[in-house]
Design a protein that fits this description.
The protein is an alpha+beta fold. Helices cover about 25% and strands about 30% of the residues. The longest helix is centred in the C-terminal third of the chain and has 15 residues, at about 150-165.
Length: about 210
């Protein structure tokens, strides 16, 4: 199991340890103002398209599995999990950006809009959830494209899409040990709003 506790106390850490849970890298909630600064623009000629439910599913799942091979919770998505997300009322295919190389999915940036009055943070955050916000829900790059700058371009494209929707607040979640991603997001002007401590392990059934 995986347990999220917003800035855990000593007692909570002790309780987790008593159940055999180990503390893992925290989950960082990062945010930024939208639109991004004018110097952050996608490369000339960089074009994405919308995800096509029922057509792109299998190929996207394969790319997602490769991109998140070290992160089973995301990398192990099945057709059923994807279908359940597509069925959510917030899903918008136009905000699920796909980038192709030679006609194949090379990377993606899946965005999500949180309307006013809807919570958009984990834990007991004091972030104002009454303000509409745009989230980069999942972003991934096929390992074959690592080092090409595709992750940066997709992040900028995702936030540009959200800004075009009239949103002024951007957010995303990232593992606290993903130094490369954190550096990228900080270079775009994002800051850490808060973090959730993460505890992992197996708990015996009662």
């Amino acid at each position: 199991m995986r347990c999220f506790i917003c800035e855990s106390t000593a007692d909570e850490r002790s309780l987790a340890a008593s159940h055999g849970l180990k503390q893992a890298a925290p989950l960082l909630h990062m945010r930024c103002a939208l639109p991004l600064a004018t110097r952050h623009r996608v490369p000339d000629g960089f074009v994405t398209r919308a995800f096509r439910p029922g057509i792109d599913d299998a190929e996207w799942l394969a790319v997602n599995a490769r991109a998140f091979a070290a992160h089973p919770e995301q990398g192990d998505w099945t057709h059923e999990v994807l279908s359940s997300r597509i069925a959510e009322p917030w899903f918008d295919a136009a905000g699920f950006l796909i980038y192709e190389v030679a006609g194949r999915i090379a990377g993606f940036c899946w965005t999500k809009v949180h309307e006013s009055g809807h919570g958009h943070v984990h834990g007991e955050s004091t972030i104002d959830a009454s303000v509409p916000a745009g989230e980069i829900y999942v972003i991934g790059v096929d390992p074959a494209q690592h080092g090409t700058g595709l992750g940066r371009a997709l992040t900028i494209a995702g936030f540009a899409h959200l800004a075009a929707r009239g949103l002024h607040h951007g957010l995303l979640y990232v593992a606290g040990d993903n130094a490369a991603a954190i550096r990228l997001y900080e270079s775009l002007g994002m800051t850490v709003a808060h973090h959730d401590d993460v505890f992992v392990g197996a708990v015996a059934a009662q």
